[in-house]
Specification:
Elements: E1 4-14, E2 21-30, E3 36-47, H1 56-61, H2 63-66, H3 72-75, E4 79-91, E5 94-102, H4 110-117, E6 122-137, E7 140-157, H5 158-168, H6 179-191, H7 197-204
Antiparallel strand pairs: 1-2, 2-5, 3-4, 3-6, 6-7
Amino acid sequence: MTELAFTVLDVQPQAHAAAPHMLFRLRVTESSGACVHAMALRCQLRIEPQRRAYEPREQAGLEDLFGTAERWGQTAKPFLWTHASTMVRGFEGSHEFDLPVACTYDFEVSGTKYLHALAGGEVPLVLLFSGTVFTRGATGFAVEQLSWSLEADTRMPVRVWRDLMDLYFPNSGWIRLDRDTLDALLRYKASRALTSWEQALDQLLPAEERVS
């Protein structure tokens, strides 16, 4: 039976990928002396919003998720951000590897709403691990299933997420509209000979809310 422990060493944006990914640099340590031949690793990444303080501007941006600040004692609870998986090569003792984590700028996703609202500081995260470990057994290979009890805490700088979004979506974001709303907005844009969606939305906003 293996005795594994995980530590988060670093997290950075992954450049030159087909889609936005972060790279979490992890160390896995095996303390029983077993020889690990390979590991198929799964990971849940959970955000723990109750573990940090928020500026007034951040509180306003998070009302869509948690309601007004006086309710946060009941509403600001840990929630799932995303899943990730990777294969880890064989090792004895300890081994460092990268866990690629796909990210989205879709504002229908709670994690995106949360991260976008933060002005700075760090994001409290818990990484929960499961998967399959292949070791050397008495008669050949042995297979062991990992439970979700393995975890690692970390605090990811908000700057890392912003750098990733700026790399793939410079000075932009994404919102989803149903088709009827999109068609109506398209007609509005065409009828006024507007050249961009930003111009159409800017005209529809109240004057005090418009981008200067």
